[in-house]
Amino acid sequence: MTVAQLRSPPLASPPAYPDLLALARNPSPGSRERLLLGVVALCDARPPTGELSPVLSEIFLTLARQAERDVRKLLSGRLAQADWAPPALINVLALDEIEIARPILAASPILQDDDLLRVLVEATLEHQIEIARRPHLGGRVADAIIDRGEPATLTALAFNRTAEISADGIRRLVEQSRRVAALRGPLTRHPRLTAQLAEQMYEWVGVALRQSICARFQVDERKLAPVIEQAVYDARTQTMAPAPANDPDRDEMERRLVAKLQAAGQLRAGYLIRAVRERRLGLFVHALATLGGFTVAEVRQALEARTPEALFYACASVGVDRAVYPALLAEIRLLNDGFPGDAGERVWLRGALSPTSAARSFRALIKG
Questions:
Q1: Could you tell me the pTM of the whole model?
Q2: Exposed e or buried b for every residue in 260-298, given b needs 16+ CB within 10 A?
Q3: Which helix (H) or strand (E) holds 147?
Protein backbone atom coordinates (compact mmCIF):
# COMPACT_ATOMS: atom_id res chain seq x y z
CA MET A 1 0.00 0.00 0.00
CA THR A 2 1.40 3.44 -0.91
CA VAL A 3 1.33 6.71 1.01
CA ALA A 4 -1.05 8.13 -1.55
CA GLN A 5 -3.49 5.32 -0.80
CA LEU A 6 -3.16 6.00 2.91
CA ARG A 7 -3.96 9.70 2.54
CA SER A 8 -7.70 9.14 2.71
CA PRO A 9 -10.25 11.31 4.56
CA PRO A 10 -9.79 9.47 7.87
CA LEU A 11 -6.24 10.91 8.06
CA ALA A 12 -7.35 14.47 7.32
CA SER A 13 -9.74 14.47 10.27
CA PRO A 14 -9.92 12.38 13.44
CA PRO A 15 -11.26 8.91 12.69
CA ALA A 16 -14.27 7.56 14.52
CA TYR A 17 -13.67 4.98 17.20
CA PRO A 18 -15.69 2.31 15.33
CA ASP A 19 -13.41 2.79 12.32
CA LEU A 20 -10.32 2.27 14.45
CA LEU A 21 -11.88 -0.74 16.09
CA ALA A 22 -12.59 -2.29 12.68
CA LEU A 23 -8.99 -1.67 11.59
CA ALA A 24 -7.66 -3.19 14.80
CA ARG A 25 -9.62 -6.40 14.08
CA ASN A 26 -8.21 -6.62 10.57
CA PRO A 27 -4.79 -8.38 10.57
CA SER A 28 -3.70 -7.23 7.08
CA PRO A 29 -0.57 -4.98 6.82
CA GLY A 30 -2.58 -2.24 5.14
CA SER A 31 -5.06 -2.17 8.01
CA ARG A 32 -2.25 -2.01 10.56
CA GLU A 33 -0.76 1.00 8.78
CA ARG A 34 -4.11 2.76 8.54
CA LEU A 35 -4.69 2.03 12.22
CA LEU A 36 -1.35 3.56 13.12
CA LEU A 37 -1.95 6.76 11.15
CA GLY A 38 -5.54 6.90 12.37
CA VAL A 39 -4.42 6.84 16.00
CA VAL A 40 -1.89 9.60 15.23
CA ALA A 41 -4.63 11.72 13.64
CA LEU A 42 -6.81 11.15 16.67
CA CYS A 43 -4.03 12.21 19.06
CA ASP A 44 -3.31 15.27 16.92
CA ALA A 45 -6.92 16.35 17.23
CA ARG A 46 -7.27 15.46 20.91
CA PRO A 47 -3.74 15.57 22.43
CA PRO A 48 -3.49 13.17 25.34
CA THR A 49 -3.34 14.77 28.77
CA GLY A 50 -0.34 13.61 30.71
CA GLU A 51 1.80 10.74 29.46
CA LEU A 52 0.40 8.16 27.12
CA SER A 53 -0.41 4.94 28.87
CA PRO A 54 2.27 2.23 28.52
CA VAL A 55 -0.21 0.12 26.58
CA LEU A 56 -0.86 2.83 23.98
CA SER A 57 2.88 3.52 23.69
CA GLU A 58 3.51 -0.14 23.02
CA ILE A 59 0.79 -0.18 20.37
CA PHE A 60 2.43 2.79 18.64
CA LEU A 61 5.85 1.15 18.73
CA THR A 62 4.64 -2.22 17.52
CA LEU A 63 2.65 -0.78 14.62
CA ALA A 64 5.48 1.54 13.57
CA ARG A 65 7.98 -1.30 13.43
CA GLN A 66 5.67 -3.24 11.14
CA ALA A 67 5.00 -0.31 8.83
CA GLU A 68 6.59 0.13 5.42
CA ARG A 69 9.19 2.78 4.74
CA ASP A 70 6.78 5.28 3.18
CA VAL A 71 4.46 5.01 6.16
CA ARG A 72 7.31 5.50 8.66
CA LYS A 73 8.37 8.57 6.70
CA LEU A 74 4.86 10.01 6.81
CA LEU A 75 4.63 9.13 10.51
CA SER A 76 7.90 10.94 11.23
CA GLY A 77 6.59 14.11 9.64
CA ARG A 78 3.34 13.89 11.61
CA LEU A 79 5.13 13.35 14.95
CA ALA A 80 8.02 15.80 14.50
CA GLN A 81 6.26 18.59 16.44
CA ALA A 82 4.15 16.42 18.74
CA ASP A 83 4.93 16.84 22.42
CA TRP A 84 2.70 13.89 23.29
CA ALA A 85 4.48 11.31 21.13
CA PRO A 86 5.82 8.18 22.88
CA PRO A 87 9.56 8.67 23.58
CA ALA A 88 10.38 5.08 22.61
CA LEU A 89 8.78 5.57 19.20
CA ILE A 90 10.54 8.91 18.64
CA ASN A 91 13.90 7.33 19.44
CA VAL A 92 13.23 4.48 17.02
CA LEU A 93 12.38 6.94 14.25
CA ALA A 94 15.45 9.06 15.10
CA LEU A 95 17.67 6.06 14.33
CA ASP A 96 15.79 5.10 11.16
CA GLU A 97 17.28 5.94 7.74
CA ILE A 98 17.98 9.64 7.38
CA GLU A 99 14.98 10.56 5.20
CA ILE A 100 12.74 9.20 7.94
CA ALA A 101 14.81 10.48 10.87
CA ARG A 102 15.39 14.02 9.57
CA PRO A 103 12.11 15.67 10.74
CA ILE A 104 12.44 14.05 14.17
CA LEU A 105 16.09 15.07 14.63
CA ALA A 106 15.35 18.59 13.47
CA ALA A 107 12.36 19.39 15.63
CA SER A 108 11.02 16.75 18.00
CA PRO A 109 10.60 18.21 21.50
CA ILE A 110 10.71 14.68 22.88
CA LEU A 111 14.41 14.17 22.12
CA GLN A 112 16.65 15.10 25.05
CA ASP A 113 20.42 15.60 25.13
CA ASP A 114 21.04 11.97 26.08
CA ASP A 115 18.93 10.82 23.13
CA LEU A 116 20.85 13.04 20.73
CA LEU A 117 24.20 11.89 22.12
CA ARG A 118 23.19 8.28 21.51
CA VAL A 119 22.29 9.09 17.90
CA LEU A 120 25.69 10.76 17.45
CA VAL A 121 27.36 7.52 18.48
CA GLU A 122 25.10 4.99 16.78
CA ALA A 123 23.86 6.62 13.56
CA THR A 124 25.35 7.78 10.27
CA LEU A 125 27.22 10.97 9.43
CA GLU A 126 24.03 12.36 7.87
CA HIS A 127 22.24 11.91 11.21
CA GLN A 128 25.09 13.69 12.98
CA ILE A 129 24.90 16.63 10.57
CA GLU A 130 21.16 16.93 11.15
CA ILE A 131 21.71 17.03 14.91
CA ALA A 132 24.34 19.76 14.48
CA ARG A 133 21.74 21.83 12.60
CA ARG A 134 19.05 21.34 15.27
CA PRO A 135 17.72 24.70 16.56
CA HIS A 136 18.74 25.59 20.13
CA LEU A 137 21.05 22.60 20.37
CA GLY A 138 22.26 22.06 23.94
CA GLY A 139 25.81 22.72 25.09
CA ARG A 140 26.55 19.10 25.97
CA VAL A 141 25.70 17.95 22.47
CA ALA A 142 27.62 20.81 20.85
CA ASP A 143 30.71 19.88 22.89
CA ALA A 144 30.33 16.24 21.85
CA ILE A 145 30.20 17.26 18.19
CA ILE A 146 33.37 19.33 18.59
CA ASP A 147 35.07 16.46 20.41
CA ARG A 148 34.40 14.12 17.47
CA GLY A 149 36.11 16.55 15.08
CA GLU A 150 34.21 15.45 11.95
CA PRO A 151 34.58 18.30 9.41
CA ALA A 152 31.06 18.10 7.93
CA THR A 153 29.41 18.04 11.37
CA LEU A 154 31.63 20.84 12.69
CA THR A 155 30.67 22.97 9.70
CA ALA A 156 26.96 22.37 10.26
CA LEU A 157 27.41 23.37 13.90
CA ALA A 158 29.26 26.55 12.92
CA PHE A 159 26.31 27.56 10.73
CA ASN A 160 23.88 26.95 13.64
CA ARG A 161 23.55 30.40 15.23
CA THR A 162 21.11 29.19 17.92
CA ALA A 163 23.26 26.31 19.24
CA GLU A 164 24.54 26.74 22.79
CA ILE A 165 28.26 26.80 22.04
CA SER A 166 30.45 27.80 24.97
CA ALA A 167 33.36 30.24 24.76
CA ASP A 168 35.74 27.29 24.87
CA GLY A 169 33.71 25.56 22.17
CA ILE A 170 34.06 28.56 19.85
CA ARG A 171 37.80 28.64 20.58
CA ARG A 172 38.08 24.96 19.62
CA LEU A 173 36.09 25.53 16.44
CA VAL A 174 38.43 28.38 15.50
CA GLU A 175 41.41 26.09 16.09
CA GLN A 176 39.77 23.41 13.93
CA SER A 177 39.36 25.98 11.16
CA ARG A 178 43.12 25.80 10.61
CA ARG A 179 42.57 22.43 8.93
CA VAL A 180 38.87 22.66 7.95
CA ALA A 181 38.51 25.50 5.46
CA ALA A 182 34.70 25.18 5.36
CA LEU A 183 34.52 26.40 8.98
CA ARG A 184 36.10 29.76 8.28
CA GLY A 185 33.22 31.51 6.54
CA PRO A 186 30.49 30.72 9.10
CA LEU A 187 32.84 31.38 12.02
CA THR A 188 33.77 34.88 10.84
CA ARG A 189 30.05 35.72 10.99
CA HIS A 190 29.24 33.79 14.16
CA PRO A 191 27.76 35.96 16.93
CA ARG A 192 29.98 34.34 19.58
CA LEU A 193 33.27 34.99 17.78
CA THR A 194 35.43 37.40 19.79
CA ALA A 195 37.91 39.96 18.48
CA GLN A 196 40.80 37.94 19.94
CA LEU A 197 39.72 34.77 18.16
CA ALA A 198 39.10 36.74 14.97
CA GLU A 199 42.71 37.95 15.02
CA GLN A 200 43.89 34.35 15.35
CA MET A 201 41.77 33.30 12.39
CA TYR A 202 43.13 36.20 10.37
CA GLU A 203 46.40 34.29 10.06
CA TRP A 204 44.96 31.50 7.92
CA VAL A 205 41.82 32.78 6.17
CA GLY A 206 41.63 34.11 2.63
CA VAL A 207 41.49 37.72 1.45
CA ALA A 208 37.69 38.01 1.42
CA LEU A 209 37.34 36.67 4.96
CA ARG A 210 40.16 38.92 6.18
CA GLN A 211 38.21 41.89 4.90
CA SER A 212 35.12 40.60 6.70
CA ILE A 213 37.06 40.25 9.96
CA CYS A 214 38.57 43.73 9.62
CA ALA A 215 35.16 45.28 8.95
CA ARG A 216 33.50 43.53 11.88
CA PHE A 217 36.20 43.90 14.54
CA GLN A 218 38.12 46.99 13.32
CA VAL A 219 41.32 44.95 13.07
CA ASP A 220 44.41 46.96 12.11
CA GLU A 221 45.47 45.01 9.05
CA ARG A 222 48.78 46.86 8.78
CA LYS A 223 49.82 45.78 12.27
CA LEU A 224 48.52 42.26 11.87
CA ALA A 225 50.34 41.55 8.60
CA PRO A 226 53.78 40.97 10.19
CA VAL A 227 52.23 38.67 12.78
CA ILE A 228 50.87 36.56 9.94
CA GLU A 229 54.19 36.65 8.14
CA GLN A 230 55.99 35.55 11.31
CA ALA A 231 53.53 32.67 11.77
CA VAL A 232 54.03 31.57 8.16
CA TYR A 233 57.80 31.80 8.55
CA ASP A 234 57.75 29.84 11.81
CA ALA A 235 55.55 27.12 10.32
CA ARG A 236 57.73 26.74 7.25
CA THR A 237 61.06 26.75 9.05
CA GLN A 238 59.86 24.17 11.57
CA THR A 239 59.11 21.72 8.76
CA MET A 240 62.02 22.55 6.45
CA ALA A 241 65.33 20.74 6.44
CA PRO A 242 68.36 22.80 7.55
CA ALA A 243 68.92 25.46 4.90
CA PRO A 244 72.12 25.57 2.86
CA ALA A 245 74.42 28.56 3.33
CA ASN A 246 72.94 30.38 0.36
CA ASP A 247 69.23 29.65 0.17
CA PRO A 248 67.54 32.37 -1.91
CA ASP A 249 64.01 31.24 -1.02
CA ARG A 250 64.57 31.43 2.71
CA ASP A 251 66.55 34.63 2.37
CA GLU A 252 63.62 36.25 0.53
CA MET A 253 61.16 34.99 3.12
CA GLU A 254 63.27 36.53 5.90
CA ARG A 255 63.67 39.81 4.04
CA ARG A 256 59.91 40.07 3.48
CA LEU A 257 59.12 39.33 7.12
CA VAL A 258 61.51 42.00 8.37
CA ALA A 259 60.15 44.52 5.87
CA LYS A 260 56.61 43.96 7.14
CA LEU A 261 57.70 44.29 10.76
CA GLN A 262 59.41 47.55 9.90
CA ALA A 263 56.40 48.89 7.99
CA ALA A 264 54.15 48.12 10.95
CA GLY A 265 56.48 49.85 13.40
CA GLN A 266 57.17 46.57 15.21
CA LEU A 267 60.85 46.08 14.44
CA ARG A 268 62.92 46.78 17.55
CA ALA A 269 66.40 45.97 18.83
CA GLY A 270 64.87 43.22 20.97
CA TYR A 271 63.93 41.36 17.80
CA LEU A 272 67.65 40.85 17.09
CA ILE A 273 68.06 39.02 20.38
CA ARG A 274 64.93 36.97 19.79
CA ALA A 275 66.10 35.93 16.30
CA VAL A 276 69.45 34.72 17.60
CA ARG A 277 67.91 32.86 20.54
CA GLU A 278 65.60 31.11 18.11
CA ARG A 279 68.67 30.16 16.02
CA ARG A 280 67.58 32.22 13.02
CA LEU A 281 70.73 34.01 11.98
CA GLY A 282 69.28 35.06 8.62
CA LEU A 283 66.50 36.99 10.37
CA PHE A 284 69.12 38.64 12.55
CA VAL A 285 71.06 39.75 9.48
CA HIS A 286 68.04 41.28 7.71
CA ALA A 287 66.71 42.90 10.90
CA LEU A 288 70.05 44.49 11.78
CA ALA A 289 70.53 45.76 8.23
CA THR A 290 67.04 47.28 8.18
CA LEU A 291 67.26 48.86 11.64
CA GLY A 292 70.69 50.37 11.00
CA GLY A 293 70.24 51.37 7.38
CA PHE A 294 73.06 49.03 6.39
CA THR A 295 73.26 46.63 3.49
CA VAL A 296 72.86 42.93 4.09
CA ALA A 297 76.34 42.44 2.62
CA GLU A 298 77.82 44.84 5.21
CA VAL A 299 76.21 42.96 8.10
CA ARG A 300 77.40 39.63 6.75
CA GLN A 301 80.89 41.04 6.38
CA ALA A 302 80.82 41.97 10.09
CA LEU A 303 79.71 38.44 10.94
CA GLU A 304 82.69 36.98 9.07
CA ALA A 305 85.27 39.39 10.47
CA ARG A 306 88.30 38.37 12.55
CA THR A 307 87.15 40.68 15.33
CA PRO A 308 83.72 41.32 16.87
CA GLU A 309 84.18 45.11 16.84
CA ALA A 310 82.21 45.92 13.67
CA LEU A 311 79.29 43.76 14.76
CA PHE A 312 79.27 45.46 18.16
CA TYR A 313 79.14 48.92 16.59
CA ALA A 314 76.29 47.83 14.28
CA CYS A 315 74.31 46.45 17.23
CA ALA A 316 75.03 49.50 19.40
CA SER A 317 73.82 51.82 16.62
CA VAL A 318 70.34 50.28 16.74
CA GLY A 319 69.96 50.17 20.51
CA VAL A 320 71.42 46.86 21.69
CA ASP A 321 72.79 47.49 25.18
CA ARG A 322 76.54 46.95 25.50
CA ALA A 323 75.93 44.81 28.61
CA VAL A 324 73.87 42.42 26.50
CA TYR A 325 76.33 42.20 23.63
CA PRO A 326 78.77 39.56 25.10
CA ALA A 327 75.99 36.99 25.55
CA LEU A 328 74.58 37.83 22.14
CA LEU A 329 78.01 37.44 20.57
CA ALA A 330 78.48 34.02 22.18
CA GLU A 331 75.19 32.77 20.73
CA ILE A 332 76.01 34.16 17.29
CA ARG A 333 79.35 32.36 17.28
CA LEU A 334 77.59 29.08 18.02
CA LEU A 335 75.43 29.61 14.93
CA ASN A 336 78.20 30.94 12.69
CA ASP A 337 81.10 28.51 13.01
CA GLY A 338 82.84 30.60 15.68
CA PHE A 339 82.69 33.92 13.83
CA PRO A 340 83.20 36.78 14.26
CA GLY A 341 86.63 35.97 15.63
CA ASP A 342 88.02 37.01 19.01
CA ALA A 343 90.91 39.17 17.83
CA GLY A 344 90.99 42.89 18.65
CA GLU A 345 89.80 44.85 21.63
CA ARG A 346 86.66 44.39 23.64
CA VAL A 347 85.31 47.76 22.64
CA TRP A 348 82.02 47.16 24.43
CA LEU A 349 83.87 47.53 27.73
CA ARG A 350 84.54 51.17 27.01
CA GLY A 351 82.16 53.96 27.99
CA ALA A 352 78.77 54.79 26.53
CA LEU A 353 78.52 55.34 22.79
CA SER A 354 75.86 57.27 20.89
CA PRO A 355 73.98 55.48 18.07
CA THR A 356 75.35 57.97 15.54
CA SER A 357 78.96 57.42 16.63
CA ALA A 358 78.44 53.64 16.62
CA ALA A 359 77.06 53.72 13.07
CA ARG A 360 79.96 55.86 11.93
CA SER A 361 82.49 53.46 13.52
CA PHE A 362 80.77 50.47 11.93
CA ARG A 363 81.00 51.93 8.43
CA ALA A 364 84.62 52.94 8.95
CA LEU A 365 85.61 49.41 9.92
CA ILE A 366 83.67 47.79 7.08
CA LYS A 367 85.08 50.12 4.42
CA GLY A 368 88.55 50.02 5.92
A1: 0.54
A2: bbbebeebebebbbebbeeebbbbbbbbbbbbbebebeb
A3: helix 139-148
